[in-house]
Amino acid sequence: GEGDRKDFLKALECYLKMVKKGHAYAQFAVGKLYFEGKEVTQDYTKAMVWYLKASSQRLPDAQDAICDLYYYGQGVPKDDSKALKWALKAANQGFAPAIRSIGIFYQSGLGVVQDYTKAMKWFIKAAELGDADAQVGLGQLYRDGHGVLPNFNLAMEWFLKATNLGYLEAYVCVGLMYESGQGVPQSYSTAMGWYLKAADRGYASAQYNLGTLHEMGQ
């Protein structure tokens, strides 16, 4: 995503040369170009064709991308069961985003019976691999007592791990803990400080929470 159009076309040329040699990641990269519509007409169906080529070589990035196409119904009918099947293919190769996605399926009851305990199991696997989204998901399960007794200390621990990775939603989660006094002394000023960290980087949820605190006179 860096550089001008000339740089992009040069990169695309390199990808296409690698595709002819059957390079899996190049196949995935071309699929991603069609998915994002960068210098080509956006086409989810063509993206799927290239993702399938790469997934036939067991590239987890492509398997996870196919999961997303089925999950959102992009270029194919929405199908949570098929999305889960592809997520499992990538997860079995230790691909953290796919492992986290399976946690989301169980958390939300998409394609499976809702099961917070199983969701937690998958979130833990992804969180321990350094997936910030999973760390936040795990923190929310501990905070809300889903699949486990509420534990604000563990919730905060996982939220903070995600903030160390710069994950903006985690800043909001920490701010909410301070605003509500969950496991920590209630402090609007501390909450505001956490919201500001994300708001300054354009995160809308943090900006909204800041506005709410200002309306409260904080």
Automatic annotation (TrEMBL):
InterPro entries listed in its UniProt record: Sel1-like, Sel1_AlgK, TPR-like_helical_dom_sf
Transmembrane segments: none
Family in the record: Belongs to the sel-1 family.
Native species: Linnemannia exigua
Name used for this protein in its record: Sel1 repeat family protein
Superkingdom of origin: Eukaryota
Cross-referenced PANTHER family: ERAD-ASSOCIATED E3 UBIQUITIN-PROTEIN LIGASE COMPONENT HRD3 (PTHR11102:SF160), SEL-1-LIKE PROTEIN (PTHR11102)
